[in-house]
Structures are given as structure tokens and as C-alpha cells.
Amino acid sequence: MSRLILSRRTLIRAGAAGAGSLLLSGCDKLFENPTFRGTLESAEDLHQAAQRALGRDALAREFAASDMSPAFRANGSREVADPAYRRHFAQGFAEWSLRVDGLVDKPLTLPFTALKAFPQRTQITRHDCVEGWSAIGQWTGPRLGPILDLAGLRPQARYIVFHCADLYHGRPYYESIDLIDAFHPQTILAWGMNGKPLEEAHGAPLRLRVEKQLGYKHAKFVTRVEAVATLGGIHGGKGGYWEDNGAYAWYAGI
Amino acid sequence: MSESVVAGTFPRGGELLKRHRLSTRIWHWVNAVTLFVMLLSGLMIFNAHPRLYWGEYGANPDTPWLKIGSARTGPGESGYLQLGGARIETTGVLGIWTDQDGNLQRRAFPYWATIPSRYSLAGARIWHLAFAWVLALGLLFYLLWSLVTRHLQRDIHITRAEWRPTHIWHDIKEHARLRFPTGAAALKYNVLQKIAYAGVLFVLLPLMILTGLAMSPGTDAWLPAASELFGGRQSARSVHFICAFLLVLFFLVHIAMVVLAGPFNEVRSMITGRYRLPPERSAPKETGQ
């Protein structure tokens, strides 16, 4: 009798485990199918269209100084090995400059003095990582829009690419956004964080803040801003490090 | 096969009657698949940062109210679930477990509880955020259609008489004795069923969707009320997790009830819509079972 119960229990357990693992491996198999996966991935376009329709010009929430995280977690590259970067770092970025080029009428080379002559914005915003954590910090820097206006975008320009000084797992980090986000009033190239110059771990000397998207879009150690017509042909062609190397969404508003 | 209720006649035990509308049946099975995918891909997303916080912010330097992790304990290593100050050992299931290839993994939820089964935050997000549309639009259309067909008003609406504590207590006692309604009474939802279904339709699923939206930085800009309602983004993330847990509880009770009430008849009624009315308890022996 006890043997019978035992074997029945074992049978039920094995059956449930078998059905469960069949379901799960079925999901994994299904995900390998390009048509199925492509259908799921196309939801990204729906997210972008929905968020643009409902809140294209909406401002990300800004917080009070008392709302800030006591300690702001640094993520991704925390230091940069590049010799040129190390030299600039040692000089306190006194000789450093930002390059603005690509599909522009007037390529720019902007040292810090020039960047600080643009209209500055200080905002206390929440940084949302794709992993799920959040931290609130204060960011200061010139708005990206007026910089692009000075360079003069050509009509073919559709995206703004941010090239970075760091290698992440041996590959150059980069990111890109479209012109709607590039000209959003809260999109800034931050040189200051929490009232001080950016620390290396947070992307010194300059990082992108694109407040309505997830953390991986906020490129750190930005050295060059390039206007392009298409993202194909730049590194892996999907518009960013994590988009190329991890199948993360290019539109990271969700 | 007997026909469904003819005007003026009273349905009797043993009759095969139409019970669930097509809209209810379609929504039920679409949701079964959707919630399965949402839950398991959600557990994988949780694995990327297996901590929950209250408030607007929350990251590694901050104190979580829930955490799943692993730690060295003497010679070995053990997995744990930490709730406030209490730690529950979960070695082998949560925090530290052996994967399908026999390798030790230090992630929160094990491979047999996640989609994809191998660690992939990007993959899980693709599943989760695509099926989120099915869940949200499915719920919206089902609720609107159920207003039109008067399913909500007729079958789910809890009447004043049903809210009486004595009535609810009576139903709890009947359920505890596993005495389910028979005859014509089995055609209607009892008050515990109504509370469970209304709770899922009007509380848990809308909360899942709202807290999900609250976590999106893009949505937060045009709908800040979503996260403010819960006291911040990390609180919304916590509520998202708690509601998912409550949906799992609902699922377990739901499955237990289907098994106890007669799985063949119950599953048939949710596929074909037809349901054999359990015979009245007072019915003569020869027609009873």
C-alpha cells in the first residue's frame, strides 16, 4: 500500500516536472524561431509609438534635493584604460574637448569652456536601470539641442550617436537616440553630478542624460557626438553596445 | 443531450447546460498562456536584481525589504530568502541551485521557474513586454465586452445579500467541508467565487498593469500618478511582485477547486462551454452518483 502511494506520488511529481520542463523547453525552442521572436521584438515599435503618442513632450519627473539617493550606484565601466583618457584625467580634463561631427554643416571641437558657455540645465532625476534598481541624483550640463543647432544638422540626419572612451568587456561602448529625444529639453551632456564634477565611475568628464529612457542609454565618457542618417554600419549596427551585444531594445523607454 | 434552460423550466441536476460564454472561454485560455509567460519571464527579470525596496529609489547601497541571495555558511554555501530581518534557508531552490547541465548557479529563481530557462534579462524582457500588451488589451476588451453582455452585472456583481457576513461564513463552511453547490445553484457563482474573480478582474490584474506602467521611465513622464500612487517606482515594483504572488495563490486555489469539483466537467465547460449540472444532494439514489 505504502509502495503504491509512493509510486503514485512519484508518478505525479515526475509527470508535473516533465510537463513543466516540456513547456519551458518549448518556450526556449519557440524563442529560437526567427518569426516568433521577431513578432515579440516588434512590440518595441509599439512601445515607442505609444509613448511618443501619449507623452512625446512630457518632462521626466524632477525631485527635491531631499529625495536624492544617499549613495548612487555606478554601473557599467567604472574606469577607463584608454591612454589618451588617462592623460586627460591626470590633467583634470584641461586639454580635453568634445567633438561634434557627422551630418552637420559645421563640425565642432568644444573644450569645457565652450560647453559651459551653452545654456546649462540642472535637474534632479531618477536613474532607472534595466535590471530594476533606481537611484536619484542631480545632473548639470549643457542641453544637447543648442549644441546640435550650432553645428547645424543636415536634413538627412536622423540619429545622434554618442561615442565613448571606454571599452566594456573589450568592446567600445556607444549609444544612440533619435532627434526627438536629442532635442528634448531635459536631454543634457552632464559634466556635473550632485554639485561636483562627474566622478570617473559615473562617466567623467561628460555623460549623456536622456531622462525618459533606461540607464544603459545614458552613455558615459562621451568623447564624440556624431549625427547620422542610419545606425547600420556603426559597430554592430543596432545603435548601441547592449543592443549589439545583448539583444536589449534600442528604444528603452520601458 | 438536454437543451439549455427553456423559459419557464428549471434546470435540474444531471442536465448538460451552456455555462461559459465564448468570450469568457477565449479570454480564460489566452490569459492562462499570457500569465504563464508573464510570471516566468518576470521571475527572470527579478533575477537581474533580486531585491525589493519601498520608496522612489532603491539599489545595492540601500536596504531592501526582500532579498534572495547566497552566502558562505561554514564549509559550504547556502541560498536564502531574506524578509526584513528574517532569513529563510532556500538552498537548492532559491539563491543557489544546480542548473540543467549540473552547474551550480547563484541566481534567485531556478531555471525551471524562468523564461528563458538560461539567464537572459534581455530575452525575458522581450517575452514580458510583448505579452504585457496581450494582458492589458485582453483585460480591457474582456471587461468592456462583459459589460455589454451583462456578464459582470449578472454573474460577477456581488449582491447586498451576498455581502452579509452570515452568508459569506456559510459559504466558507460549505467550502471547508468540500460541499459545493449542486443542481441549479451550481450554475451561478457562489460569493467566494465572485470575490475571487472580482478580485482578479478588478484588483490584481489592474494593479499588475498599473505597477508595470509605473516602472517605465517613459510612461512615468506622462503618467507620474502611476508610481506616485504607490509611493515611488521601487514601491510600485514591490507591489508588482506582491500582486504576482497573489495571482499565483489564486491559480493554486483555482486548480485545487477544479480538481475537487470534478476536473473533466469543469475543464469541458471552459472549452466547449457545456457543463453537466451536479445532481441535487436530496435527489433520489437512482439518479444520484
What secondary-structure arrangement, pairings included, does this model have?
The complex is a heterodimer of chains A (254) and B (289).
Chain A: H1 2-32, H2 34-41, H3 43-55, H4 83-90, E1 97-102, E2 108-111, H5 112-115, E3 120-128, E4 134-142, H6 144-151, E5 159-168, E6 171-178, H7 179-182, E7 188-190, E8 192-193, E9 196-197, E10 207-209, E11 222-228, H8 241-246
Parallel strand pairs in A: 1-11
Antiparallel strand pairs in A: 1-2, 3-4, 4-8, 5-6, 5-11, 7-10, 8-9
Chain B: E1 16-18, H1 22-48, E2 51-52, E3 66-73, E4 76-83, E5 86-89, E6 97-98, E7 104-105, H2 121-148, H3 151-156, H4 165-176, H5 191-214, H6 217-222, H7 224-228, H8 233-261, H9 263-271, E8 274-276
Antiparallel strand pairs in B: 1-8, 2-3, 3-4, 4-5, 6-7
Helix pairs in contact in B: 1-2, 2-5, 5-8, 8-9
Describe this structure in words.
The complex is a heterodimer of chains A (254) and B (289). Chain A folds into two domains: 2-38; 60-246, Oxidoreductase, molybdopterin-binding domain (Sulfite Oxidase, Chain A, domain 2, Alpha-Beta Complex). Chain A is 32% helix and 25% strand. Chain A is an alpha+beta fold. In chain B, 51% of the residues lie in helices and 11% in strands. Chain B contains nine helices and eight strands. In chain B, the strands form three sheets. A four-stranded antiparallel beta sheet of chain B has the order 2-3-4-5. Chain B has helices at residues 22-48, 121-148, 151-156, 165-176, 191-214, 217-222, 224-228, 233-261, 263-271; strands at 16-18, 51-52, 66-73, 76-83, 86-89, 97-98, 104-105, 274-276. Classes of the chains: A alpha+beta (254), B alpha+beta (289).
